[in-house]
Amino acid sequence: MSIKKKREKKLYGVIGLGRFGFALAESIAKTGEDVLAIDKDQGKVTSAAEFTDNAYRVGELTRESLEAVGIANCDVVIVAIGDKLDTSLLTTMNVLKLGVERVISKAQTADQGALLELMGAEVVYPEHDMAVRLARKLTAPNILEYISLSDEIDIVEIKLTKKTEGKTVLELNVRGAFGLNIIAVKHKDKITTDISPKTVFSADDTITVIGKKESIRRFREYVGV
């Protein structure tokens, strides 16, 4: 039985329930959105049925079989098959031909990603991205979290040190000296975005800044993280 199009929530299709695909499908379901989960392994489909009513075993990922389970009704489809190039490309092509508005495909290599992009899909590199995040955490432990917006711009959370204790936003002069903008401050368990030049920092505060990677590096050196 396939899913009908009439829905209030968005429908996310996840094709391939390996570690990445399964975790992605489960995480989306936990947000309250609808998930259509597909895999050729019945065991994985049975496990996915614990968090979605729309889990299907599909042996061959043809256009017809995908249409039969309702992939064409999805707002977003993630093709979480990266280890088999031919399957990844053919499945992505079939999903695109079904008219899905947004298709995101997992890739393991730059060449695979380039082919998927030429077909019209967005591309993610989960293994690469995870490795980069781990490397940053290991080499810069005071950077608690970061989002890379482009090759030049990041958003990062930085834990402050005693060097900044008692200083105000005006005195620290993050924008003038480093070209960074503070978008949030966490003091103990309270997060605020209402930041004024008179805001005073404590040694254990965490600030979220946006700016160029090089500027963030210089600021980290300044505060000693």
Helix content: 25-40%
What name does the CATH topology of the largest domain carry?
Answer: Rossmann fold
Q: Distance between termini?
A: 55 Å
Low-pLDDT runs: none
Number of strands: 11
Order of helices and strands: EHEHEHEHEHEHEEHHEEEH
Number of helices: 9
Quaternary structure of the protein: single chain
How many domains? The number is: 2
Main sheet, how many strands, which sense, barrel?
Answer: 6 strands, parallel
Short key terms for the protein model shown above:
225 residues, Rossmann fold, Alpha-Beta Plaits, 36% helix
Explain what the structure shows.
It is built from nine helices and eleven strands. The chain is an alpha/beta fold and 225 residues long. Helix 4 runs parallel beside helix 5 (110-119). Helices cover 36% and strands 25% of the residues.
Please render the helix and strand layout as text:
Elements: E1 11-15, H1 19-30, E2 34-39, H2 42-48, E3 54-57, H3 63-68, E4 76-79, H4 85-97, E5 102-106, H5 110-119, E6 122-124, H6 126-139, E7 143-148, E8 153-159, H7 169-172, H8 174-178, E9 181-187, E10 190-192, E11 206-212, H9 213-223
Parallel strand pairs: 1-2, 1-4, 2-3, 4-5, 5-6
Antiparallel strand pairs: 7-8, 8-11, 9-10, 9-11
Helix pairs in contact: 4-5
Short description:
The protein has 225 residues and is α/β, with parallel strands linked by helices.
